[in-house]
Amino acid sequence: MSVSSMVDVADAVTFSSGPAIQRIRLHEEAENQNSGQSALMDDDLLQYYHFLADKGDVQAQVVLGQLYYQGGRGVPVDHERALHYFMMAAESENANALAYLGKMYTEGSAAVEQNNQTAMMYFKNAADKWGNAVGQTGLGMMYMYGKGVAKVSVYMAYILSVTCLGEENLLNSSNDKIQNHLTVHVKL
Fold it and tell me: Member of which family (predicted)?
């Protein structure tokens, strides 16, 4: 094939929704940890996710929110940045972002003042509207510990959270097993 025919083919290619961007996942980057370029790769990958998030990619916004919320991969914990990215994703009604906002408001930090009513609103939105397991578990934990709502039994809190998790077979479990299950999913 001649160079001129390759140029003709390249000119004929169109994008229906803008330029094609291929996403690189953070877990794929772990394969390059031993290459000696991991620090450079981390910076490049982080910049890439910032680029995607700024362009409106909701998944990139959630990934950055989680990364800044929990820290890791050389990125320090920064709850203000986490809040920023979770709020961006929450504008698109992303269930994971809503659930993490509930978690942030339940715990409180330098970025947000602890507020059970706001936490409940985010958990409820994530759980009711989207069936999000973290949102439902957050609701269950708030009821179990009486955070901004009337305290209910461990069993009732579990019932409130279990429906989305698809683990109805555990409904006859002991209180210790139920409390452990709730604590594993959302640590309040």
Answer: Belongs to the sel-1 family.
